[in-house]
Specification:
single chain; Rossmann fold; 4 domains; alpha/beta; binds adenosine-5'-triphosphate; transcription regulation; Helicase, Ruva Protein, domain 3; about 450 residues; 5-stranded parallel sheet
Length: about 450
């Protein structure tokens, strides 16, 4: 049985991790401090060391140095917080086998352990040839963020997924609306049934009904075969209509009818087909505004919007940025067959200061391009497109908050940016919540 030394000062977390590892047939000793770990290492031989980066009496890097001095071949995996990823990257250069960022999921832990033990069995690490390869540690395609905005998003997904409620997902372009829709499907009772995603913005209105409901061969010029429509294809599962605001008025009527009757009739057919679908829609437009203007039917709007979820913009998920960057880097490494291990400090600062108007899609593209352009194992500023550092994010925290003239505007701006969340707005303004309340009272902003 392989033996792991787990070094973690958080007692309940280490207990949980130990139990998990033991359930997977590893023998685990726990050290709560660096001293504790050193004593255990004197007494026992371990196949793998899994250590927190920060320990009460030192850090994982010190342990790395000690092991190196002893010419140890035991792979070391560091557990880090997201803000410490660049330190972990430095540690890997000094010989750590891998790092894993908290919070991590069980599959990631297993994958890292397997990778490390595999390398130990096949090719013991030596102190001179310790150029570790960063392995993909993320198993699925959904990263659950750690920011407050991401946490409430995850909570909403969990809440609504197991129901049959129609969900309207809103949010800027590239925030991950389709990924959220897929996730709702995967967490629903319909997860073994089809998930059919349709981009309504890409369907010309003349052929929309044939796309949605299908057609019979010969029913119109160009109908050379029978075609199954999206409703029928999604039968039993989930139909996801993206950019739903782009549907023509006529298509909206057809959609509403299909949703009310739960039956569709392919063009040219005389028989109706019963369909059982769960509907999820998404839009980056203000649909209520479209309802007001009369371009979107109010009855359809209410039908689609039994529950709505707003996917936060990347600029409002600052705490998640490094986590997503790391995820996209792993993905790009795999796609481009590279093994870049991280970003320079300067690049991370540029990422934090940029506004990301294209959200996660833009971040993913920037990282893929940079991965392609980077010849070394760390992404530097030179691999980034210049718009990232020529247009820094306006920071409401700095500037002239103390000057009375614009104080009120800054507060309004921060409240708006934080979706009226006072705690978050206070954070943006770098003042306490109490000060924010006082100032709101002063400026009559209640
Ligand atoms: N939670 C997530 N974890 C990992 N990757 C994500 C996540 N959310 C989004 N992405 C990635 O970000 C990119 C944009 O996501 P998606 O296409 O779902 O955005 P969208 O809001 O539907 O965009 P649009 O409004 O343009 O249709 C995709 O590459 C997707 O894989």
């Amino acid at each position: 049985m392989k033996q792991i030394l787990l070094i973690e000062d958080d007692v309940s977390f280490s207990k949980m991790l130990k139990n998990f590892m033991e359930r997977h047939q590893y023998k685990v000793d726990v050290g709560y401090t660096l001293l504790n770990a050193t004593q255990l290492l004197k007494k026992n031989d371990y196949d793998l060391i899994f250590t927190d980066l920060r320990l009460p009496d030192g850090d994982g890097i010190e342990l790395l140095k000690q092991m190196k001095e002893k010419n140890s071949t035991t792979p070391i995996v560091l557990m880090t917080g997201y803000a410490e990823v660049s330190t972990a990257v430095r540690a890997m250069k000094q010989g750590a086998f891998d790092y894993i960022s908290k919070p991590f999921n069980p599959n990631e832990v297993l994958e890292v352990i397997n990778n490390a033990l595999e390398v130990k069995d096949v090719k013991p690490l030596s102190t001179t040839t310790n150029k570790p390869e960063k392995k993909e540690t993320t198993n699925n395609n959904f990263v659950t963020g750690i920011s407050a905005a991401s946490k409430s998003l995850t909570e909403y997904i969990h809440l609504v997924a197991p129901t049959e409620i129609s969900v309207l997902i809103t949010g800027e372009s590239g925030t991950g609306k389709e990924v959220v829709a897929k996730n709702i499907h995967l967490q629903s009772l319909r997860h073994n049934q089809p998930f059919v995603a349709v981009d309504c913005g890409a369907i010309p209105k003349e052929i929309a009904s044939s796309e949605f409901f299908g057609h019979k061969k010969g029913s119109f010029t160009g109908a050379i075969n029978d075609k199954i429509g999206h409703f029928e294809a999604a039968n039993g599962g989930t139909l996801f209509l993206d950019e739903v605001g782009n549907l023509s008025y006529e298509n909206q009527i057809q959609l509403l009818r299909a949703l009310q009757e739960r039956r569709v009739k392919p063009i040219g057919s005389s028989t109706e087909i019963q369909v059982d679908i769960r509907l999820i829609t998404a839009t980056n437009e203000d649909l209520l505004d479209a309802v007001d203007k009369g371009s979107f039917r109010e009855d359809l709007y209410h039908r689609l919007n039994e529950f709505s979820i707003k996917v936060p913009s990347l600029k409002d998920r600052n705490d998640d940025l490094i986590l997503y960057a790391d995820f996209f880097l792993n993905k790009a490494n795999q796609q481009l067959n590279k093994s870049i291990i991280g970003f320079s400090k300067e690049v991370l600062t540029i990422f934090q200061n940029y506004n990301w108007p294209g959200n996660l899609r833009e971040l993913s593209n920037v990282i893929k391009r940079a991965t392609l352009l980077t010849p070394s194992n760390v992404i530097e500023k030179t691999a980034l497109p210049s718009e990232l550092f020529l247009a820094p994010k306006p920071k409401s925290t700095t500037t002239s908050f103390s000057t009375k003239e614009n104080e009120k505007e800054l507060i309004i701006g921060a409240l708006h940016e934080a979706d009226n969340n006072k705690t978050q707005a206070a954070k943006l303004l770098n003042i306490t919540r109490k000060t924010l309340y006082n100032k709101m009272k002063l400026y009559d902003l209640n």
